[in-house]
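Chapter summary example: a protein plus guanosine-5'-diphosphate.
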Amino acid sequence: MFDELTEKLESTFARLRGKGTLTEADIKEGLREVRRVLLEADVNFQLTREFLERVEGAAVGVAQLRGVNPAQQLVKIVYDELTKMLGERREGLKLSTIPPSVVMMVGLQGSGKTTTAGKLARKLKAEGRQVRLVAADVYRPAAIDQLETVGQQIGVPVYANRTTNDVVRIAREGIEEAKRGRDRLVIVDTAGRLQIDADMMAELKRLKEAVRPDEILFVADGMTGQEAVRIAQGFDEALGVTGVVLTKMDGDARGGAALSIYGVTKKPIKFIGVGEKLDALEDFHPDRMAGRILQQGDVLTLVEKAQSAFDEEEAKRLEKKVRKDGMDLNDFLVAMKQMQKLGPMKDLLKLLPGVNASMLKQANLDPKRMKHVEAIVLSMTNAERTRPELMNGSRRLRVAKGSGRPVQEVNRLLEQFREMQKMMKKMTQGGGGGGGRMPQL
Ligand code: GDP
């Protein structure tokens, strides 16, 4: 996400950090570069100017600071202002207490509306709500099928009525059905066009009047930069949207949409889509996103990902055992399998503070390595896995042969495992660290 933006900002700050003390001129030069980087990322011109004015105002005196690394101080100022630009604080869905609440998804065709409706339904269902999807996109016949397929995949009922083109009627019927089914939440997928057009807006307005939604979520393709902002304005003026979802943020979105949409429309980004799969939706947190952009890491999102992917029972069992008896290679294998469920290591590492693109390039992140490690561990006997200290030279050779990996790799794995054991010991004895977000500002 925003790789280019992040990389360029990082190199700007790296240059400043390298200087130790900063003159006013250094800061001015640095901020000029930040300006260029933001504009290249397609951030709104006016917002960029205001942003820099605020940063510059706050940075007065940074040059004279002693004791604190002035460049780091400047990063902190930029971090605070970026957070404000992205929306200041997390805004979740605001749903009525009287069921069913209604969420209406709007946006242009291809923005990811239907997919996002499904992702949202899945997420809310996982939070314990009874959800129903309503297919009110009648112009693209495949849209109804698509929503029904999504519904089946996530186990959420879909209301559709192929006998009519009257979307108001469909939505009303869907809500009635939800009431009968005692659903708490209805998500209405609406029709989009390739461009904003008057007919579409008129229809959405009628739909809004009829279903009185708690939320109107505008879904925008995050790759489209300023274009997404302009369309958001159009939808907001006509309908009054309550929140934004930016999709396709897993691709090489430059950042312009994310950094401008709140500033221009004052409508909060509530979620971001980070992949085509139905679990690829993240809550949007302005501060965490600013942290990611500035490579301060986003440990909270990492922890949340871990919590949702891990089998809780298994994790608890593992933790208990490791605390009591220490870790052996069987546990290591279980932990590794759970890690694999989190997705590519490269994406996870990016959430850690200070990990940048060039480090990722250097790190050996070949996904095959996981398979190799697994093969090595599986070639050991159970006794060897529980007591890796048994692994003498001839056993190492045997395992190398059995797994088809060079003996050096077996050695390296055992060495790494020993280091990890040492670290685990320290952690379990020390009562665990603080955790949480840790922008080292
Ligand atoms: P709609 O016309 O607005 O309903 O758009 P769709 O939901 O059909 O999505 C259009 C395309 O974008 C589909 O191929 C989706 O798989 C893809 N898509 C949607 N959200 C994301 C996302 O967050 N990341 C990626 N990579 N693709 C997405």
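Key point: Residues 107, 109-115, 192, 247-248, 250-251, 273-276, 280 surround guanosine-5'-diphosphate (CB under 6 Å).
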